[in-house]
Amino acid sequence: MNFIFDNDRPIYIQLVEQLEIYIISGKIKSGEKLPSVRDLALKTKVNPNTMQKALVELEDLKLIYTERTNGKYVTKDKKLLNKFKDKYAKEKTKKYLNEMQELGFMKTEIIEILKEDDK
């Protein structure tokens, strides 16, 4: 896990976002046991309390769950994972379209640019 943080937003929110991407992309597999809070904090170079706060958020989103005495696991709910993946894709697409339109491109031009990349 290679996380990069900016100073403009709370670290735990950035952790949630980056872990969410790892989960929905399959870099952390569905049903996989997560390392301990301490190990995750060490890997990402954050305070364990900050990591715990991020994991609570992910648990609230139902992307991870806790099995008592066994640790935390990534959800096995494929429907939920696909829902998050679709939401993320739509956000990225809208951001891209807005940025291209700010540069003066029309939607038809943007589509042509994307088609060229497929060739």
In short:
With 119 residues, the chain is mainly alpha-helical.
Find the count of extended strands (DSSP E, 2+ residues).
Answer: 2
Order of helices and strands: HHHEEHH
Count of domain modules: 2
Overall spatial form = elongated
Second-tier CATH architecture of the largest domain: Orthogonal Bundle
The secondary structure category is mainly alpha
N- to C-terminal distance: 33 Å
Low-confidence stretches: none
Strand content: 5-15%
Task: Give me the CATH superfamily of the largest domain.
Answer: Winged helix-like DNA-binding domain superfamily/Winged helix DNA-binding domain
Q: Helix count?
A: 5
- Kindly provide the name of the CATH class of the largest domain: Mainly Alpha
Strand order of the largest sheet: 1-2
Mean pLDDT: 94
> Compute the gyration radius: what is it?
18 Å
Describe the structure.
The chain is mostly helical and 119 residues long. It folds into two domains: 11-76, Winged helix-like DNA-binding domain superfamily/Winged helix DNA-binding domain (Arc Repressor Mutant, subunit A); 79-118. It is 61% helix and 7% strand. The protein has a two-stranded antiparallel ribbon with strand order 1-2. The two termini are 33 Å apart. The mean pLDDT is 94.
